[in-house]
Design the sequence.
């Protein structure tokens, strides 16, 4: 009994921190995506005026912002690497044109499920200003796609650095979470 009571006290005092909370985004009646939101991040989701579902995760210090939009792809136009490159180049043109890189350096996302590509951009104006990055602005934009059968998501991970554990945690989240789960049909046992 003492062991159980001690374990309960430890968990209630915060030793269980670092656990993710699953959020479910209902894409359609039959399809949903599960997002494992890390502790310390604020999650929000909404349907925009075009009917697209958007989700956002922001860390408590507002140093990182992950923005995601879910898109249907019944014809599989973004299912392969060429389709992903074409879509990503069109979607991120404004980032590329205003970046230090001035180009696309497509890298494989290598998600646990599906496929994907991403590019990283550094804001040329902020990089050469010689001043600290103003609040609410971000030096780096890492943007890409993660595709699965019938759909994909477009993500943008905004940050002021790309080496922190928090950045790598969110990037890993893109690979390992945001998985489509089929809604069970028929009676549940």
Sequence:
């Amino acid at each position: 009994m003492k062991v159980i009571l001690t374990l309960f006290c430890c968990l209630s005092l915060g030793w269980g921190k670092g656990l993710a909370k699953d959020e479910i985004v209902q894409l359609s009646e039959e399809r949903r995506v599960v997002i494992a939101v890390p502790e310390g991040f604020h999650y929000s989701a909404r349907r925009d005026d075009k009917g697209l579902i958007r989700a956002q995760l922001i860390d408590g210090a507002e140093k990182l912002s992950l923005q995601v939009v879910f898109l249907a792809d019944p014809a599989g136009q973004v299912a392969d690497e060429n389709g992903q490159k074409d879509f990503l180049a069109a979607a991120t043109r404004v980032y590329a044109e205003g970046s230090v890189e001035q180009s696309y350096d497509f890298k494989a996302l290598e998600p646990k499920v599906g496929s994907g590509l991403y590019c990283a951009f550094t804001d040329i104006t902020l990089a050469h200003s010689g001043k600290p990055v103003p609040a609410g602005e971000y030096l780096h934009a890492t943007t890409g796609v993660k595709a699965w059968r019938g759909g994909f998501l477009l993500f943008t991970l905004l940050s002021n650095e790309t080496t922190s554990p928090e950045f790598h945690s969110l990037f890993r989240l893109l690979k390992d979470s945001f998985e489509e789960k089929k809604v069970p049909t028929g009676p549940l046992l």
About this structure: The first strand starts at residue 21 and ends at 26. The domain at 18-182 is CATH 2.60.120.1690 (Jelly Rolls).
